[in-house]
Amino acid sequence: MFSVFRKLDWFFKQYWKRYTFAILALIVASIIDIIPPKLIGMAIDEIQYSTLTMESLLDILMIYGILIVLSYTISFLWDYTLFGGAFIMERLMRSKLMRHFLKMTPTFFGKYRTGDLMAKATNDLKAISMTTGFGILTLVDSSIFMFMIIAVMGFTISWKLTLMALIPLPIMAVVMHKYGSIIHERFMKAQAAFSDMNNDVLESIRGVRVIRAYAQEKQDEQRFQNMTEDVYHKNLEVAKIDALFEPTMKVLIGISYTIGIGYGATLVFHNHLTLGQLVSFNVYLGMLIWPMFAVGELINVMQRGNASLDRVNDTLSYQSDINVPLNPKDISVPEHIKMDHVSFAYPDSKTWSLSDINITIYRGQTIGIVGKTGTGKTTLLRQLLREYPGKTGNLLISGTPIEEIALDKTREWIGYVPQDQIMFSKTIRENIQFGRADATDDQIKHVMKMAHFLDDIESLPKGLDTKVGESGVTLSGGQKQRVALARAFIKDPEILLLDDALSAVDGKTESMIIDHLKEQRKGKTTCITAHRLSAVMHADLIVVLDEGKIIESGTHKDLMKTQGWYCEQFKLQQLEQQEVVS
């Protein structure tokens, strides 16, 4: 059960001063809380034996008042320090998870679903935070505070009465251990079910338009209902065990009270105890209720925290597929990129997505990559992004293997516009500034002109401050694509990767964007994949892929002379365009 503290030793070592102070303050507060029942017993005995004077009464009341002020002050300090530490733990773990997510490759996100990761970053971290806050409180109260009360009862009142009243404690220990193991198992299942539900909700929200288009609202609602029922039942199983803690504790505490009052009255009758001592003893017995409850709460919190920590650590222990060089080579500018017999296969795939690729790209050149669907165009660009392992051959930048260059450095050079544009739920200005945080409005308007988006921005209700909605839902496909282009342009990267980034715009808009590219990207490297060959006609080198292999390469003029796939496809597209115009 306490293994969760061992797993979190790095945190407690880092904040040992905070937790040492909190625990010491908690102990001092416990000592203060033990004194008032003793004063009550003394006062009762003085009343019984008619020895209470106004002076001694005022002394008792003054001590009581001082204890109240001290208890309030110290309780505030330990509460603030202890639970402040719990919030620090939650913040650290959430930041740690986020950094881990950002370092991971697509393989990781293929293994862990988004809903599961969200559940770990919310529910599981909250359970871990409870362990480092409420868990420490229950640990101290169920051990040190309980021991103090028992010691005071035994040493200052009666060991016989104390031992008799605590007979239920061993029974409680056995029952609580049994409950704890059951809670751990059931809580793991409940958290897993919550993760599944989270993922289902996310998919439904993302695909709501498709669900409506196919009239699947009722089926999706039923599926969600089934999942919520599953979550409900699994949490109900946890709640059943939770519900057993309190009545079990009440029964055991009731037995202790019965023994305390019955046997205590006998001791008073035989003059082994005074009435004031019996009253103090029963007050202390009442004070034992919370430490006894704390034992149950401790087991509950520890098991939940342990289960959640195991889930989070499982995610954090996942190693990135891409190795970062320990002593990276320092290259200021990518003068040329060379793929030398590069082949690549995706993880869990038995076929090569790229096979024996040989290309040399010099700084300032524009490269077009074309071919049928599924021939490896996107995969070729991803070799520069280093998203997956599995590459053979050499990919050299300025003569240095890309594996020997810092990953942050290579990605700093690159501006990337993927096929599926990602829009953040912010304003258009903020989406574009993602490429360069300090970009001014003039710079933003310049790149919007390059992306041919100025006319569109004027028609939007709040211009640059228009919010694009979840995943850019308020923008059309072409608008999202041009905002994504503007975001890449404002970075002014050394290497610009456009992965079919002009597919959602018309031919005239495409032509204008290409003209801006040719003008603004002089001296910088640009790689364009496209299905519409007009997007790569101006390129210095065009490569044609088929089943991951280069079957043709050259300029537009060269490829038109070869009468191969490129020539045939270009003529076909020209013919289709003429038919549309006519």
UniProtKB/TrEMBL annotation:
Membrane topology: Multi-pass membrane protein
UniProt key word Cell membrane: yes
Domain ABC transmembrane type-1, chain residue ranges per copy: 21-304
UniProt GO cellular component terms: plasma membrane
SMART domains found in the cross-reference section: AAA
Segments traversing the membrane: 21-40, 60-89, 134-155, 161-179, 251-269, 281-301
Statement: the UniProt record of this protein carries the keyword Transmembrane helix: yes
Sorted UniProt keywords: ATP-binding, Cell membrane, Membrane, Nucleotide-binding, Transmembrane, Transmembrane helix, Transport
Record PROSITE patterns: ABC_TM1F, ABC_TRANSPORTER_1, ABC_TRANSPORTER_2
CDD domains the record matches: ABC_6TM_TmrB_like
UniProt cross-references to Pfam families, sorted A to Z: ABC_membrane (PF00664), ABC_tran (PF00005)
Any GO MF annotation of the entry: ATP hydrolysis activity
Start and end residues of each ABC transporter domain: 337-572
InterPro entries: AAA+_ATPase (IPR003593), ABC1_TM_dom (IPR011527), ABC1_TM_sf (IPR036640), ABC_transporter-like_ATP-bd (IPR003439), ABC_transporter-like_CS (IPR017871), P-loop_NTPase (IPR027417), Type_1_exporter (IPR039421)
Localization: Cell membrane
Protein name, UniProt field: ABC transporter ATP-binding protein/permease
Organism for this UniProt entry: Aquibacillus koreensis
